């Protein structure tokens, strides 16, 4: 792993100016900004928090869900600062630390893309320093942003997200489901057929047999506190409207159910890292294919990881992301 002491941009980023909060307002809030966002339903505010200063590498983190929080990325605190990487935590509209309007008109891909663009402008990010890292739903949002605004990007990271929800559902049904004990898979499908998603038995089956295999590969009592806190803060209204009631595919009348952009990937020309994991809910072979469809792509495979591979395969995930950022910054990509 690259260390902060030998970063090639150390002339620009020292430990002193990386942790510089000399702007009085910035220091007063610890880097937190509530950014006003204009929407069809009025103006609201979204929460952001900047960590560090780097004029060349600024990474905006797009969380998953939809409707979870930036807290899924808090493990980055143990790695990115010593590498001199500036990163921005950000809760999308509807998520716990931001405003949470109760208006389903707001939960569309186009509206979220417009929100990200407003956040970019407010933070002063541009094509000379602006990277997006989006995981899961955040990967959908990252792709959609790149389709419309890639001229504003220096680099793109699509983490643990396929480019087709129908193919994702097929993978869950045909590849992952049959790996479960037969009686467990049958029970899960029965609960879903009956739309009995709130049944405690249904939730128990998912957590015991599915989530600990394909979301985060640790026993539930060993899940990181930040992950538990993130799920505790989930906004079910946004999540169910867009994703549906289960992580076992995107089901019901979820608005993302038919999302598919396979034929648009070839239009992405910015340097792109696609991350896939062996035990993920998403097909790693599809994500490897994605890395070849974009014009300048790289694939990072996490052999021990699942959906949250920044936790269960940190030894692969974190160095791979850091190397991508530094390679793009040093024109080695």
Automatic annotation (TrEMBL):
Q: Which family does it belong to?
A: Belongs to the peptidase S33 family.
Q: Which SUPFAM superfamilies match?
A: alpha/beta-Hydrolases
Pfam assignment, any one: Abhydrolase_1
Respond yes or no to whether keyword DNA repair is given for this record. no
**Keyword annotations for this protein?**
Hydrolase
Q: Which GO terms describe its molecular function?
A: hydrolase activity
Origin species, per record, is Flavobacterium hankyongi
Name-wise, this protein is Proline iminopeptidase-family hydrolase
Positions of the AB hydrolase-1 domain: 59-313
């Amino acid at each position: 792993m690259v260390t902060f002491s030998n970063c090639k941009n150390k002339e620009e980023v020292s430990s002193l100016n990386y942790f510089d909060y000399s702007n009085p307002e910035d220091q007063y809030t610890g880097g937190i900004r509530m950014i006003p966002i204009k929407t069809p339903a009025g103006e609201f505010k979204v929460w952001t928090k900047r960590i560090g200063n780097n004029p060349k590498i600024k990474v905006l983190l797009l969380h998953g869900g939809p409707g979870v929080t930036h807290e899924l990325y808090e493990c980055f605190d143990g790695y990115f600062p010593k590498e001199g990487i500036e990163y921005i935590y950000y809760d999308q509209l509807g998520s716990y630390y931001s405003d949470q309007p109760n208006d389903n008109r707001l939960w569309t891909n186009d509206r979220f893309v417009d929100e990200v663009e407003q956040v970019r402008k407010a933070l002063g990010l541009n094509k000379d320093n602006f990277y997006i890292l989006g995981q899961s739903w955040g990967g959908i949002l990252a792709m959609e942003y790149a389709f419309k605004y890639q001229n504003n990007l220096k680099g793109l990271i699509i983490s643990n997200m396929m480019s087709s929800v129908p193919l994702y559902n097929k993978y869950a049904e045909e590849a992952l489901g049959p790996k479960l004990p037969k009686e467990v898979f049958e029970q899960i499908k029965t609960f879903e057929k009956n739309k009995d998603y709130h049944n405690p038995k249904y939730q128990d089956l998912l957590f015991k047999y599915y989530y600990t295999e394909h979301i985060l590969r640790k026993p539930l009592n060993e899940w990181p506190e930040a992950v538990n806190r993130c799920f505790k803060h989930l906004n079910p209204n946004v999540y169910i409207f867009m994703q549906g009631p289960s992580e076992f595919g995107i089901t019901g009348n979820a608005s993302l159910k038919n999302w598919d952009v396979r034929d648009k990937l070839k239009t992405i020309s910015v340097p792109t890292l696609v991350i896939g994991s062996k035990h993920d809910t998403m097909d790693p072979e599809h994500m490897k294919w994605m890395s070849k469809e974009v014009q300048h792509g790289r694939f990072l495979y996490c052999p021990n990881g699942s959906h949250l591979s920044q936790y269960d395969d940190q030894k692969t995930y974190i160095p791979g992301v850091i190397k991508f950022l530094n390679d793009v910054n040093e024109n080695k990509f």
